[in-house]
Predict the 3D structure of the following.
Amino acid sequence: MHIQIHHRTTYKYDTPISSIIQNLRLTPRNHESQNVRNWRIDFDHDVLLQKRDDAFGNVVHMLSLSSPLDSLTITVDGEVETQETHGVVRGTYERFPVGLYLRATPLTEPNAAITSFAKDVATKTDPLGQVHQLMESLFKEMKFDDGPTDATTTAAEAFEQRRGVCQDISHIFLASARSLGIPARYVGGHMFRKDGEVQQEAGHAWVEAYVPDLGWIGLDPTNGISQSEAYVRIAVGLDYLGAAPVRGSRQGIAKESLDVHVAVGQAGQQQQS
């Protein structure tokens, strides 16, 4: 599948800020089922941009600008060729032993309710069967709702409400899998929707779980399906913070507003609006 992506993020400030520094995890890497055909990041200001890899092997561009500004727009355009592997992810850039992905974080710390849920639903004896049971059960248990949670909501808080967005549902999966001794990690990227809807409100999040003899398996508990050729993998981490598309800081006292536009389609589809 040839997937085209247009991603525009605009920050606006009610009073000018004096400088800004941001880490951008917006660029995918190649692996066995993903080939980046072209990719470009543009800005509406002259910025200093430095490229590096972070600890997880994600491509990071560090943006810095030391002149007053009242807005900043970051635009990404690219095309990625993907292959169907039925969820198996191979050829990825690995820097850490698998055991690292058993580590809990403040966003993915399992509480008693999550630990009990994981034990109750993951009844199969093999890890592959267990991660599929977790995915299917979370799809049934959780309601997608962008109202009650935000970027700081923990897995425990979202699970208590039984509501959240893909970030929250992925965090609950991570907490559940790790409580069972299954290494799992957060994935940020994009998904081509099979219903043909190109315009989207944001990127997508899913998970990868490690299964002996198979390796990393991509699972989307928000939609109850395994990763397919419709997914473009951008960044991974222990949780959202490790794979966030944009994180940074600014100098200046100002209220910030954020507008994000994402379009994900096949080659030849209209992307921008």
Summary: The chain is about 20% helix and 45% strand. The domain at 88-240 is CATH 3.10.620.30 (C8orf32 fold). Residues 127-141 form the longest helix (15 residues).
